[in-house]
């Protein structure tokens, strides 16, 4: 039987295989949104990280609070 489109994409991006069901893949893009991004940044700072893996691959989207109800929510 042939591979599904998902299997083909994973194969094309696979960096490593860790067992039968776990693979490490190269990411084309990472999306973040206004609710959890500040928590993720705080976590990186707590871990002593001063940069992300590739800033050109991070795309920020507003998808929970739009339009913002006030200036505090907008930040």
Q: How would you explain this protein's 3D organization?
A:
- The chain has 75 residues and is α+β, with helices and mostly antiparallel strands.
- The protein has one domain.
- Helix content is 31%, strand content 20%.
- It contains 3 helices and 4 strands.
- It has helices spanning 5-13, 37-46, 71-74, and strands at 14-17, 23-25, 30-33, 58-61.
- The protein has a two-stranded antiparallel sheet with strand order 1-2. A two-stranded parallel sheet has the order 3-4.
- Helix 2 (37-46) links the parallel strand 3 and strand 4 (58-61).
- The longest helix has 10 residues, at 37-46.
- It is elongated.
- It starts with a helix and ends with a helix.
- The mean pLDDT is 89.
Task: Give descriptors for this structure.
75 residues; alpha+beta; elongated; 3 helices
Order of helices and strands: HEEEHEH
> What's the tally of helices?
3
Structural class: alpha+beta
**Low-confidence blocks of residues:** none
As laid out across the biggest beta sheet, the strand order is 1-2
As a whole number of angstroms, the C-alpha radius of gyration is: 17 Å
> What helical percentage do the residues reach?
25-40%
Mean pLDDT: 89
Largest sheet: 2 strands, antiparallel
Count of individual beta strands: 4
Gap between N and C termini, in Å? 50 Å
Q: Tell the overall outline.
A: elongated
How many distinct domains? 1
Strand content: 15-25%
């Amino acid at each position: 039987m042939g591979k599904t489109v998902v299997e083909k994409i994973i194969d094309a991006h696979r960096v490593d295989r860790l067992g039968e069901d776990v693979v490490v893949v190269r990411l084309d893009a990472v999306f973040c949104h206004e609710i959890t991004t500040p928590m993720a940044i705080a976590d990186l700072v707590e871990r002593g990280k001063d940069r992300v893996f590739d800033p050109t691959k991070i795309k920020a989207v507003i998808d929970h609070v739009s339009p913002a109800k006030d200036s505090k929510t907008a930040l």
